[in-house]
Design goal:
Helix content: 25-40%
CATH superfamily of the largest domain: P-loop containing nucleotide triphosphate hydrolases
CATH class of the largest domain: Alpha Beta
Strand order of the largest sheet: 27-24-26-25-29-30-28-31
Radius of gyration: 25 Å
Structural class: alpha+beta
Oligomer: single chain
CATH topology of the largest domain: Rossmann fold
Number of helices: 15
Bound molecules: guanosine-5',3'-tetraphosphate
Shape: globular
Distance between the termini: 41 Å
Number of domains: 3
Length: 528
């Protein structure tokens, strides 16, 4: 297979959802249909969750929350599918945002009974900002839930998506009879059988087959026909280019737990989902077909093996090929590095790989060279854009609780911040260090990891900060800026990139400061 064919057969995507909508279950079922695993564990049984393929970290096992973002690759119909798993817990949302910079499309899972939930809204809005193509999977049809049309409405209203149903349920909950696949005019009848292996459910080849009526009953068939008529009247017909430009959003219905509707989703996904896409850098847009290699770090995973302090940097290949033992330019350090054991990830294992193509994720062993957002290239000075830091929600002073371990603490904090676990701000006035996180849980994670991985003990002190704002000074506003810095010296800090940040203690202060200094723009993200 040549280089262009390799690119064309890759599909790199993420699954996002509000916790408990069924993301983990769907991921496992996709792997099952892809033949990547033989049997899906009853995912939720904690026993199995402990050994689940996407769990790496001790802390995750302890808490049963999917902290890690991992990569699961498999072949399906000769396509190379790369699923980037994202943590569902909201405290790790920033991790998910970063992963979304490395996907070419997403599948959003929605619980039929709960509809669109808070976390779904946030994540979808990030995808929409970047025009990432989105497919919606409405899950748990084996349970009583909202009416399909009401749900489609809700998805349109709350998520701002233009829905195009590509499958439609026949009944729901107790009455759930199956799914009509508009994509290829087939009906799959629902049988709740083995949940752990791919069973055989009956497929009816068309709506006009007489067996359909005898299988689901006359009234269900009549109702389905009425509903389909409405679907065709109300919703636009599917157009792949419109979907690829992020303007139209196919919807599937099913039950991941029951392996139902998953194959329809996967079959359509491999047909329509985008191949690896170009990526913009500060210098220019890089196309996957370019010969020269380029890629960027979107995730750093620490200490898979707690006995060794190694880290794994996850690189998304943007263009060219990444080969083992070839020197590549680490742009930020302006130095060449080569890697003797780059890892590729599969559903059940990781292994050393000689060549990776655009769309692939490579795991590189790292002893502290990388941080999130770093670019690697064949030699060109490229800086990929689009991995901004968002203002954290929680802020605390971090203190050293063991004076003998100051060095360990500082190294630990440094490395955890490079991984993107949290953000560090250093107060200009007195050099005190402040940790900012998306969720309160991360403070525990940091404390735990500092102790177990670096042998350092820290404690926290509360601090009243509402938002961190990155500053942009408008032309001819230098004197405004000097005044501002004098007046707000107590609230100014430097982030890890050396950028100046204003730590506003309340929404009111921020508003007042903004109106007092119109020559300064206060940004909620580090990239503007
Ligand atoms: P998440 O990754 O999005 O957080 O969700 P996860 O897959 O862990 O699923 C959350 C719960 O929803 C699990 O149940 C799972 O079994 C259930 N679930 C997933 N898909 C379906 C479905 O199609 N139908 C039904 N009825 N349930 C589904 P749990 O109660 O948390 O665990 P367990 O007691 O079932 O193990």
């Amino acid at each position: 297979m040549n280089f262009l064919e390799e690119i064309k057969r890759r599909r790199t995507f993420g699954i996002i959802s509000h916790p408990d909508a069924g993301k983990t279950t769907l991921t496992e079922k996709l792997l099952l249909f892809g033949g990547a695993i033989q049997e899906a564990g009853a995912v939720k049984s904690n026993k199995i969750k402990k050994a689940a393929t996407s769990d790496f970290m001790e802390i995750e096992r302890q808490r049963g929350i999917s902290v890690a973002t991992s990569v699961l690759a498999f072949l399906y119909k000769d396509k190379k599918i790369n699923i980037l798993d994202t943590p569902g817990h909201k405290d790790f949302a920033e991790d998910t945002y970063r992963t979304l910079t490395a996907v070419d499309s997403v599948i959003v899972v929605i619980d039929v009974a709960k509809g669109v939930e808070e976390q779904t809204e946030k994540l979808v809005s990030v995808c929409r900002m970047r025009n990432i193509p989105i497919i919606v999977f409405i899950n748990k049809l084996d349970r009583e839930g909202k009416d399909a049309f009401d749900l489609l409405d809700e998805v349109e209203q709350k998520l701002g998506l233009t829905t195009v149903p590509l499958s439609f349920p026949i009944g729901m909950g107790y009455d759930f009879k199956g799914i009509y696949n508009l994509w290829n005019d087939t009906v799959r009848l629902f049988v709740s059988e083995s949940k752990t292996t791919v069973g055989k459910s009956s497929l009816i080849k068309s709506l006009s087959e007489p067996i359909l009526k005898s299988s689901i009953g006359e009234s269900a068939k009549d109702r389905l026909e009425e509903e389909l008529e409405l679907v065709r009247e109300v919703y636009p017909s599917f157009d792949r280019d419109t979907y690829l430009s992020g303007q139209q959003h196919p919807v599937f219905f099913g039950s991941a737990l029951n392996n139902f509707g998953v194959q329809e989703l996967l079959d359509c996904f491999v047909d329509i989902a985008p191949t690896p896409q170009p990526k913009t850098s500060e210098e220019r847009t890089i196309s996957p077909q370019e010969d020269a290699f380029s890629g960027f770090v979107f995730k750093i995973h620490a200490n898979m093996d707690p006995k060794h302090r190694d880290r794994l940097a996850f690189i998304k290949v943007v263009s060219g090929t990444f080969a083992r033992n070839v020197p590549y330019l680490h742009v930020r350090h302006n130095k060449k590095l080569k890697f003797s054991s780059p890892n590729a990830f599969f559903a059940d294992k990781k292994e050393i790989v000689d060549v990776s193509y655009p769309g692939d994720i490579v795991g590189l062993h790292d002893t502290g060279n990388f941080k999130i957002g770093d670019t690697l290239t064949s030699g060109e000075q490229i800086h990929f854009k689009g991995i901004p830091s968002f203002s954290p929600e929680h802020f605390r002073y971090i203190n050293n609780a063991d004076p003998m371990k100051a060095k360990q603490l500082s190294k630990g904090i440094d490395q955890l911040m490079d991984e993107g676990v949290a953000q560090l701000f250093t107060l200009e006035l007195n050099g005190r260090k402040i940790v900012g996180t998306v969720g309160a849980l991360q403070f525990d994670v940091i404390q735990y990891r500092l102790e177990h991985e670096y042998g350092a003990i820290c404690n926290y002190e509360n601090l009243n900060v509402h938002k961190a704002c990155w500053l942009e000074v408008q032309p001819n506003s230098e004197s405004d800026f000097i005044d501002f810095k004098q007046a707000k010296a107590k609230f100014l800090a430097i982030d890890k990139q050396g950028q100046l940040v204003f730590l506003a203690d309340s929404a009111f202060t921020l508003q007042m400061t903004q109106s007092k200094y119109p020559g300064i723009i206060f940004h909620a993200t580090s990239e503007f």
